[in-house]
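User: Here's a chain of 290 residues. Predict its fold as tokens.
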Amino acid sequence: MSRRGSRIRAGFIWLFSLLFAVVLIVAAGAWAVNAFKLAPAPLIIACTAPLDSNHYSLATDQSANAALITAIAQRRRLPPRAATIAIAVAMQESKLRNINYGDLDSLGLFQQRPSQEWGTAEQIMDPVYATNAFYDVLITVPGYQQMTVTAAGQAVQRSAYPEAYGQHESMARAFASALTGYSPAALNCTLNQPGAPGDPATVISKLQNAFGPIGASQQGSTVRINAKDAAGWSFAQWAVANADALGITQVSFAGKSWQRNNNDGAENRGWQSAESASGQQVTIVLQAKG
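Assistant: Prediction complete.
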């Protein structure tokens, strides 16, 4: 073969190799794009509440504890400021979790100490008891409603680091406003679908444990509560805050409905208009037994 023929043949081989490499790169890129498209973004399980132009988030167990703290304040007919102070303090002391450890003999949501006459260890580990114990002291503080969260929290807790309470005030105000019902349709949770059926009797029991006796009834997998205005929104948003643990799939009140399957993806729609939602009754629907 002539030199010219060899050069032409080598050129064809080089061109074919280049084209083959390009095809491989394009194919790999297409595979990667499709692979990323098929892989959904990880779901961030959390509850949010707005304040002004910001949104604040808590894990679902933290939100349930914030809902309990707020419900007890309402049961005692305390102002929303009391719930704000208590939520902020509990966030600093325990990250809003009922932990069985702490500095020295501190325990529970508010890190109260049996040795400081807050109660027995068993009592302090009961979130209802611990919250009431906190409020028992708070209401004895003159002018606590006008105090900063730091000053009011310190008057109750006698913490070594009182300035830390204030950093949680905005979050606490956002959740207290929603959970007291003063901010309607404000609290929203992004959740997976329930792993097990919900139990209406458990929902009613927990509602009464938090709020006291209420006009709740059960029909199949649905719980209904007679309420209106801010009280109705308080029950409704308590239910959303507890939806993860209690298998709640839908909450409706006053022309709005929160549906769990509308809150499990990138498009988080939250509360939506629902003409059938009564302004006199909160409806809580649970995952039914299969």
